[in-house]
Amino acid sequence: MTLIEQINSLLPQTQCTRCSYQGCKPYAEAIANNEADINQCPPAGDKGIQALADLLDKPFKPLNPEFGEYQTPSVAIVIEEDCIGCAKCLDACPVDAILGASKVMHTVIASECTGCELCIPPCPVDCIVMEKTELEYSPVLAKQRYEAKQQRLIRLQAEKVEKSKKQKEKLMAMMKAKAAAKRA
Ligand code: SF4
Ligand code: SF4
Ligand code: SF4
């Protein structure tokens, strides 16, 4: 395992971006490259910072409050009677913990929710609230779900590019045929 992977394996895998990086792996890369300190991840709390300090043989530092405060575990709950089924929260959830489709009421799979809160800002009717929980999500599973979602998004983007390329080729062929017909 590379140093980046070892650091990443100690991070909570919520992908919440509170560390100021676009997810846990970019923060792990920044720590490995000495570009970020070990105390920038609020969800990790003191326990997580200590684990990073042990791995990197560095002294423990308390969480830097610039990046937020440690909060006890929480999960997102959709107030179902207020949900308009716009599906905006689906895209925002890094671990696909929300079930629903367009125009259908949405719900959160509590055991898969990491409490990252990323689904709250996109909700146009403010019907997602956070509640304290005793449930402990699995960072290993959260990482797998996040990576699976990233792969799916890459595949969808590639399909979109391919479709647009084919449409362009079709249009060019039609224009060429039209020009040839005019010349004839
Ligand atoms: S869980 Fe920690 S490392 Fe991961 S994105 Fe959030 S703050 Fe950054
Ligand atoms: S449901 Fe909301 S809080 Fe829970 S993991 Fe998804 S985006 Fe984060
Ligand atoms: S963003 Fe809010 S209103 Fe839209 S589907 Fe999600 S929970 Fe429902």
Structure explained in plain terms:
The structure is a single chain. A two-stranded antiparallel ribbon has the order 1-4. Strand 2 and strand 3 (107-108) form a beta hairpin. Among the domains are: 3-67, Electron transport complex subunit B, putative Fe-S cluster (3-methyladenine DNA Glycosylase II, Chain A, domain 3, Orthogonal Bundle); 74-132, 2-Layer Sandwich (Alpha-Beta Plaits), CATH 3.30.70. It is mainly alpha-helical and 184 residues long. The longest helix has 45 residues, at 139-183. The protein has five helices and four strands. The structure holds iron/sulfur cluster (3 copies).
Assigned CATH class of the domain at 3-67? Mainly Alpha
What gross morphology would you assign? flat
Count of separate DSSP helical elements:
5
* CATH architecture designation of the domain at 3-67: Orthogonal Bundle
Q: What is the CATH superfamily classification of the domain at 3-67?
A: Electron transport complex subunit B, putative Fe-S cluster
Please state how the strands of the largest beta sheet are arranged side by side. Answer: 1-4
How far apart lie the N and C ends?
66 Å
Ligands, deduplicated: iron/sulfur cluster
- The number of E-state strands comes to 4
Relative strand content:
5-15%
Poorly predicted sequence stretches spanning 5 or more consecutive residues: none
Helix content estimate: 40-55%
**What's the Cα radius of gyration?**
22 Å
What profile does the largest beta sheet have?
2 strands, antiparallel
Q: In sequence order, what are the helices and strands, one letter per element?
A: HHHEHEEEH
CATH fold group of the domain at 3-67 = 3-methyladenine DNA Glycosylase II, Chain A, domain 3
Mean pLDDT: 95
Q: What structural class results from the helix and strand content?
A: mainly alpha
